[in-house]
Amino acid sequence: MAMKIRLARGGSKKRPFYRIVASDSRMPRDGRFIEKLGTYNPLLPKDSEDRVKMDMERVQHWLDQGAQPTDRISRFLEAAGHTPKKERANMKKAQPGKKAVERAEEKAAKASAAAEAPAEAPAAEAAAEE
User: Fold this and answer.
1) 53 has a pLDDT exceeding 80
2) What is the residue-averaged pLDDT of the chain?
3) Are residues 94 and 73 in the same domain?
4) Which residues lie within the region annotated Disordered?
5) Do residues 25 and 37 touch, judged by C-beta distance below 8 A?
6) Range name among 15-19, 75-79, 105-109, 116-120 with the lowest pLDDT average
7) I need a labelling partner for 17 at 20 to 30 A (CA). Which of 29, 36, 89, 116 fits?
8) Same structural domain for residues 93 and 73?
9) What's the structural domain count of the chain?
10) Which residues make beta-bridge pairs with 39?
């Protein structure tokens, strides 16, 4: 039986509330689960203690039994200091693409050329007056 520690959605429309559960991976997301391990309320502020509550002893028990945490649960465990932080695969996601870099370079070149042109004009007028 492939076990997962994952989120099961509850709450009403536009007001999500999640249970952290240990369940068989073949069961539906909000369906049958084996044990409730905690709760997650995304509507609370990030620094609130009630945002994520987990029974760490039971979570460790299920991890020892071979249950695989989902990505979000593994992030919760990392934030709690229960597991070491892993490298993420999308390190370049925040960097701009090639065309955006080219446009930024062109814009910078035009701005520097425009800044140099007015600076040269008064210098040329001063030289012409002498």
Assistant:
1) yes
2) 86
3) no
4) 80-130
5) no
6) 116-120
7) 89
8) no
9) 2
10) 19, 53
